[in-house]
Structures are given as C-alpha cells and as structure tokens.
Amino acid sequence: MKDISTLKDLLIEQLRELYNAEKQQYDTLVGLSNTYISSYLDQAIKKHIGETEVHINELERIFHELDVPSFGEQSQAMLGLISEYNDIVERSTDQEIRDAAIIALVQYMEHFEIAGYGTVHAYAEELGLDDIAAKLLFILKEEKRFDERLTQIALMHINKKAKSPIIF
Ligand SMILES: [Fe+2]
Predict the structure, then answer these.
(1) What is the CA(125)–ligand 1 centre distance, in A?
(2) Which residues hold their Cβ within 5 A of ligand 1, which is an ion?
(3) Distance, CA 82 to ligand 1 centroid (Å)?
(4) Which of 4, 23, 28, 78 is deepest in the core (most CB within 10 A)?
(5) Rounded to 5 degrees, what angle do the CA atoms 66, 68, 70 make?
C-alpha cells in the first residue's frame, strides 16, 4: 500500500473508506427493508436509502475532481459494526425489540459516517478544496439529520413499545 505522506493523501484515504462504507451501508439498509414494523422507521430508512445513493454519486464526483481512483476494498470498520449489530438484530425474537435493535445498528453506522465526514470536510477546507468541502458538508448534514430523526423515532415510538412488547 502507498505511503500516506500529505494531508491530501490522508483525505483521499479516508474518502475511500467512506465510499466503501456508504456502499456497505446501502446494502445493509436495503437488506433491512420490510423487516421492521414501525412505519416511522420504514419511512426514515427508505428516505435514507435514496440519500445514500446520492452520497455515493457525490463521492464518485469528488474522486473524479481529485483525479484519483475510488478503489473497491471493503471498510473493515463498517463491516465490523454491521456484523456485530446484525447479530443482535437477528437474535431479537420480539418484533418491537427488533425495531429498537435495528435503530441501534443504523445509528452506529451513522455515527461512524458522521465522524468520517466531519474529518474529511475539515481536511478539504484546510486544503482550500472549496467545492469538495461544500459537497462533504452537504453529505455530513444529511447524515446528521437522519441520525436526529432516528433518535426522535426511538424516543417517541420504538423504545416505549420495546419496553412492553406485545406478546402473541
Ligand atoms: Fe451516508
């Protein structure tokens, strides 16, 4: 692997990590579709699947602007989060507990992305890559908005139901 010797190298490396993480998140969200019962969760996740497609396209435009390939390796960090929390979702026997576990899984993925986009946005600004910084800020804001929506859904709807699940 190539050495990372400049801030721009570090930016590119982390953009690749985020690009692969987005693709893994996309597959995970699509895989989760229709496995939950909350209509709020359904709406929020489906909206974010569309946003994730946009994020992937934006990142491809950024690689094009930087004139570097995107590379195709998986993000081991994202993979770890997904397999860890997917296991928890799968072991949740009650549907309402399962919805709460799905929110946890999705929020862990979101927080990973929020940390990553915050970092690359700061690097792009520091390097004077204004157009790229603007694109990254746009993505960062969408990730934060989705995360806040999930918190709202968990607090207003899901956690209470998970506390007293309906037993069939
Ligand atoms: Fe995203």
Answers:
(1) 20
(2) 52, 55
(3) 14
(4) 78
(5) 115
- Cα-Cα-Cα-Cα torsion 157, 160, 164, 167, nearest 10 degrees, comes to 10
As a whole number, the mean pLDDT across the chain is 94
The pTM for the full model equals: 0.93
Distance (angstroms) between ligand 1 centre and the Cα of 151 equals: 16
Distance 66 CA to ligand 1 centre (A): 20
For the segment 116-129, what is each residue's pLDDT rounded down to a tens digit?
999 999 999 999 99
Encoding tokens for residue 128? 């004077």
Burial of 105 (0-12, 13-18, 19+ CB in 10 A): buried
Q: List the chain domain ranges.
A: 7-163
Other beta carbons within 10 Å of 84? 11
Q: How far is the CA of 75 from the centre of ligand 1 (A)?
A: 14
158 Cα: distance to centroid of ligand 1 (angstroms): 23
Rounded to 5 degrees, what angle do the CA atoms 37, 114, 51 make?
A: 55
Q: pLDDT value at position 80?
A: 94
Compute the distance from residue 54 Cα to the ligand 1 centre, in Å.
Answer: 8
| Termini Cα distance of the chain | 55
CATH of domain 7-163: 1.20.1260.10
